[in-house]
Design a protein that fits this description.
With 460 residues, the chain is an all-alpha fold. The protein has one domain. α10 packs across α11, α14 packs across α15 and α17 runs antiparallel to α18. It is globular, with a radius of gyration of 22 Å. The relative contact order is 0.13. The mean pLDDT is 80.
């Protein structure tokens, strides 16, 4: 007998399903990123340009610290959804139980590695003196609470798979309210530096990870904890399905390191001594501005993935196409609205993160946002396509896309636009996402032919 969640995935009108899961998903993912926006506002308005640069140096390493946890969490979500579509709850529950344990162990290992590697890797990106010391303190603080904080994202996926979309949204909103309170306490009340920011975010995520576990511990969710049974096939399946996100994270962080090195170099060329710190700070503002838009795209594609995987597992290919079509339309609307918001209101957005007295920094950030935002004209294509490939267990295609957008295309653009100086860095995102959209169209045509073949076989 199908649960309400399974009936929703199998029978609900695709557009009604879209609004039921994607809209809360967008709010949920945006709420998850609000902590980053708050962090940027607090740091920009209280600590200034130097702190911005330090966090941008540390952030690629922080994300590498999360990479293995993301590999397991995302990689497990796909076989769980497909197993549920095949009415194999025993397999789904086992993969779920094993993955939670694996994420905790991976976070301990990665946290230890990153604690010791913090200083040499920060030096590699050109950080010295106070910039180096601040970056290392931020990174090591994040690594300290990593075992409890990193499972937060995986639990969000598992709540959505179990149909607890609104619960997921509520927990994410609660996480950001807690983060805001802790940022106020640490940065304004105790007047701490970037360590206070790292503590605020890590503590909030850790607390909400525990809260997210409660529905599963009570045994009232579609997914339930069972005695974990590890086997090689499960490891391979999780690794294959999670590799696109994992490689995207690692490749993206390598690209960020290359970007930081380039920013330090070009900043000195364009602005003189100390210009590297300014250039890195501008880049950090762009990343925070991106958090206003990027989560909405990801929220749609991520929320629809369980339904796509469920129907793919049930061999309901026509319904898969209808759900995916809704996803593409929804992300296209968000992508175009994001471009318009950033292009027409760059000064307003920049003022959130830059002190009024930092006139020089504001003068650089505002035109940079206008160049950077053009990426959203195409970004939605790649986001939805990659999520679709992951949901139907096409890890090779999803991996090609993830590595292309995270490393290959940005590095190509870095070389092609080098002569434009820092403007070439701001335009890098536009060029890389345009290339990704072309690649997505080619790969979608290949998968489309495969789906037509499967439908033809069903109709015989």
């Amino acid at each position: 007998m199908k649960t309400k969640t399974e009936e929703m995935y199998a029978l609900m009108n695709p557009w009604r399903l879209f609004f039921k899961v994607a809209m809360p998903g967008m709010i949920s993912m945006f709420a998850m990123s609000v902590y980053s926006i708050f962090e940027g506002i607090f740091i920009g308005q209280t600590l200034g340009e130097g702190a911005f640069a330090a966090i941008n140096i540390a952030m690629p390493l922080v994300m590498i610290n999360f990479s293995l946890s993301d590999l397991i969490g995302v990689g497990a979500s796909v076989p769980i959804s497909i197993a549920l579509g095949q009415d194999d709850k025993e397999t789904a529950n086992n993969v779920f139980s094993c993955s939670v344990l694996m994420i905790f162990i991976a976070a301990i290992l990665m946290g230890g590695v990153m604690t010791f590697a913090a200083e040499p890797l920060s030096r590699l990106m050109g950080a010295e003196g106070e910039l180096l010391a601040t970056s290392v303190r931020y990174l090591r603080t994040c690594a300290l609470l990593g075992p409890f904080a990193t499972i937060f994202f995986a639990m969000d996926n598992y709540l959505k798979i179990s149909g607890y979309v609104k619960t997921s949204m509520a927990i994410n909103i609660g996480s950001n309210l807690l983060t805001l309170g802790l940022l106020t306490f640490f940065l304004l009340g105790l007047q701490m530096d970037v360590v206070g920011s790292a503590l605020a975010v890590s503590i909030a995520m850790s607390v909400c990870s525990v809260v997210a576990l409660i529905p599963f511990l009570r045994g009232k969710t579609l997914l339930k904890f069972t005695k974990p049974h590890f086997h090689l096939g499960m490891f391979k399946q999780i690794a294959a399905c999670g590799s696109p996100v994992f490689l995207n994270n690692v490749a993206g962080r390598v690209t960020s390191i290359l970007m930081n090195i380039s920013l330090m170099t070009l900043g000195v060329i364009e602005f003189g001594e100390g210009g590297g710190t300014t250039a890195v700070a501008v880049y950090a503002v762009l990343m925070y501005a991106s958090d206003l838009c990027w989560p909405l795209l990801y929220g749609i594609s991520d929320s629809l993935a369980p339904a796509i995987g469920f129907n793919w597992g049930a061999a309901n290919y026509g319904r898969v196409k209808r759900i995916v079509r809704c996803g593409f339309i929804g992300t296209a609307v968000i992508g175009l609205c994001s471009t318009s918001l950033l292009f027409f209101f760059p000064g307003t957005i920049a003022s959130l993160f830059v002190k009024p007295e930092e006139i020089h920094l504001m003068g650089i950030v505002t035109p940079a946002i206008r160049l950077f935002c053009l990426a959203y004209i195409f970004r939605w294509v790649g986001v939805m396509t990659q999520s679709f490939f992951s949901a139907i267990e096409k890890p090779a295609l999803a991996t090609i896309m993830s590595v292309s957008i995270a490393l290959v295309f940005p590095v190509l653009m870095l070389g092609a636009l080098w002569n434009l100086g820092l403007n070439g860095i701001w335009l890098n995102f536009f060029g890389a996402n345009a290339l990704l959209a072309i690649l997505a169209v080619v790969l979608l045509s290949i998968v489309g032919k495969e789906i037509k073949k499967k439908e033809a076989e069903q109709n015989k």
